[in-house]
Design a protein that fits this description.
The chain has 215 residues and is of the alpha/beta class. It has seven helices and eight strands; from the N terminus they run H-H-H-E-E-H-E-H-E-E-H-E-H-E-E. The protein has two domains: 131 residues, Dna-directed Rna Polymerases I, Ii, And Iii 27 Kd Polypeptide, Chain: A, domain 1; 70 residues, RPB5-like RNA polymerase subunit (Eukaryotic RPB6 RNA polymerase subunit, Alpha-Beta Complex), CATH 3.90.940. The strands form two sheets. A four-stranded mixed β-sheet has the order 1-2-3-4, covered by helices on one side. The longest helix has 19 residues. The radius of gyration is 20 Å and the shape is globular.
Length: 215
């Protein structure tokens, strides 16, 4: 017993590591989709670990925790998120996933991998008529945008981007750059040519706004 009269064991997670990892990664996925403008139920984002385990068990099946969501601004645009489970992500794995989805309409597919993809599988994800993104499950255990030192990022619409370029009389390639492989760019699913407004707010420098173009 500690000084407060509570057993220290009560603070230790008694469930499986696997279910905890899936819970954290799925929560980040739901937050990511919400921040990209997809319709995600608040109740799912706020789901607790115990509620997650009650629904999916201590050894969740990847097929059971998949996510699909329509875009708020255009419900005909849909994203599907597939958790691929442990093991090497091979070309045969990708083909199996696509076979299961052949009767579904979607414009973007996000794959959450338990291990690195083979070179063949990685190449194949670039050859489909829809956008395919891949994340390692370990990349999603924490929401990178919630870090205390992370500045606020806002994606500009095409109209806002053109107004910015006109206001400062600059070309797109003259803006500071952000790589498409940057963790924040990947979180928001940004494509080359898109522009983000980055707002820094600190006691030392105060409020400071910059713009970055994805390359």
């Amino acid at each position: 017993m500690d000084g407060s009269g509570e057993c220290l064991a009560s603070f230790i997670d008694q469930g499986s590591v696997e279910s905890h990892r899936y819970f954290l990664a799925r929560r980040t996925v739901l937050e990511m989709l919400r921040d990209r403008g997809y319709a995600v139920p608040v109740a799912e984002i706020e789901q607790t670990l115990s509620e997650f385990r009650a629904l999916y068990g201590e050894q969740p099946k990847p097929d059971n925790i998949r996510v699909s969501a329509p875009r708020l601004s255009d419900p005909s645009i849909k994203v599907i998120v597939i958790f691929c489970g442990p093991g090497k992500f091979k070309l045969a794995t990708l083909r199996g996933i696509l076979d299961k989805l052949k009767f579904e309409a979607f414009q973007r597919l996000i794959l959450i991998l338990g291990d690195k993809p083979t070179s063949q599988a990685r190449q194949a994800t670039r050859e489909f008529p829809f956008k395919v993104e891949t994340f390692q499950i370990t990349e999603l255990l924490v929401n990178v945008t919630k870090h205390v030192l992370m500045p606020k990022h806002e994606i500009l619409s095409e109209e806002e981007k053109q107004a910015l370029l006109k206001k400062y009389s600059v070309e797109e390639n003259q803006l500071p750059r952000m790589l498409a492989s940057d963790a924040v760019a990947r979180y928001y699913g940004l494509d080359p040519g898109q522009v983000v407004r980055v707002t820094h707010d600190s006691e030392d420098t105060g409020l400071h706004v910059t713009y970055r173009c994805i390359v």
